[in-house]
Amino acid sequence: MVLLLSLNVPTLEVGEYTVTLTTVTDKNHESVTNTSKITIQKIDVIVTVDKVINYTGAVVDVIANVTGVDGKNITGGIATFIIHYDNKLGSGLLMAAVEEYTAEVIDGKAEFKGITLGAPGTYPSTIQYSGNEHYNAANNKSEVIVLPLNTTTESDDVSGSSGDKVDIVAEIVDQNGNPVQNGTAVLKVNGKEYKAEVKDGKATFKGVELPSESTEATIDYLGNDYYNPSKTTIQITINEEPEPEPEPQPEPVNPVTEKSVPVVPAAGNPIALVVLALLTLISTVSFGRKK
After folding, report:
1. pLDDT tens digits, residue range 16-43?
2. pLDDT beyond 60 at 284
3. Is the pTM here over 0.90, yes or no?
């Protein structure tokens, strides 16, 4: 005869146990003793971590979830979060090192606080759980996506005379208000380009020749691995040239009017009277000849 028994035993620690079962004698059965071995195994674990997406230089907290396949949150054991900066996905570029962070697992969670993200790129990450006396070790994979910083480019409007040569300065900052440290900026004025390197948040375009008429110019920050591009426009105003002053004209000269002074014979002068008489006589004789 075979008896099937179902027994409830208290929770046992992981390990191998010997179980001895002895039946009770009654009027129909003799006492029987049997021995068997029971192995209590550790429970498998599911460990996960979300994909991390943030900007270069950002300080982030990463949380891993650690639960058993029995659905229970795990407490105890150590979780390790690894960012493989030495394996930048899609580029083959090797970074300096692998970074590892550890945290204790409490109530199904491991919190990795204050992680500063490195250079922009997409990197594989690994989450590992060490296991404990009740649960097996486990690991899983995810990604860390580090984005370049957004930027803002600004510059003042310019005014002057056509042909003037001026220096135009553009200020470029990142999304946190910090000066952009490197890269190239391009100024375009009526199809003509000027280039300047960015240093400490500034790009200086030297000797920009102002055009013949007012126009709008663009400034483009080209960006790089660490910074996203940005652009702005400025107004270049050409001042109107003043009208030339007329040359002074010489003042007209009034002609001097010559005044005739009548000659009046002096009264009582005998010589004058004789001359006058002679002239009268000659005149009379001349008219008489013509007749």
Report:
1. 777 777 777 777 777 778 787 777 789 9
2. no
3. no
Which CATH number do you get for residue 141? 2.60.40.1930
Chosen domain end from 222, 238, 254 = 238
**How many domains is the chain built from?**
2
Domain residue limits at 99: 45-147
Q: Where are the beta strands (DSSP E) in 59-183?
A: 59-68, 78-83, 99-104, 109-116, 121-129, 138-147, 151-155, 158-160, 165-174
CB atoms closer than 10 angstroms to residue 30: 7
- Using DSSP's 3-state secondary structure scheme, residue 278 falls into helix
